[in-house]
Amino acid sequence: MNPTITWNEIAIRIAATLIGSALIGINRSERGHEAGLRTTMLVALAGALSMIEVNILLATSGRGGSSFVMLDLMRLPLGILTGMGFIGAGAILRRGTAVSGITTAATLWLVTMIGLCFGGGQILLGSIAVIISLFVLWTLKGLDTRLLRENRAVLTIRGAMDTDMPALVRDVAAAGFIASTALLTRATADGYVESKLDVRWRGEPVAEEPAELIARLAGSKGVTLVEWRR
Question: What are 164-176's pLDDT values in tens digits?
Fold first, then answer.
């Protein structure tokens, strides 16, 4: 970072920041994510302005030889990154076992770093970061959705006291799922037995219930309730 900076250099850094963050923001907006075009541009601009401010304060003319070190100007961009941690945490939502917004938080953190790079005059480094970011967000999006992953659900089966629960678990396994009993309740007074199964399978995320499996379980002898919950 050059201790002296001109207005032409400031304009180039801000322009590079806005262009790079806009490209990433367009990707987020097209997919309907919370941190869209304006958010990514504002976050990157904040990072760039913090580094430009640091660069302006780096001028050493008229100061003692030790003042350059004692200023510790890097606390400003470090504070920006710390603040981004709070914004990123606010972008992450949890609904039950489902967690969303992690990619949005990571994108905000990334565009902050891109802004710091451009603001500090590292145009080439910032440009490389933008290219890699676009590759990850645009190109790898399709690959990520095609990857097989482990899915989990809770299967609740309730039936009469003489219901053959082990046989029902074998039916679940025969359908391609891995099932383990998470909770087995025997309500003797009410005359029923209930089993909660932790069901796992590897494949594409499935939002719908496996209707065929549930219908087969519901039609088994003694079964009064079958509930599938992701």
Answer: 888 888 888 888 8
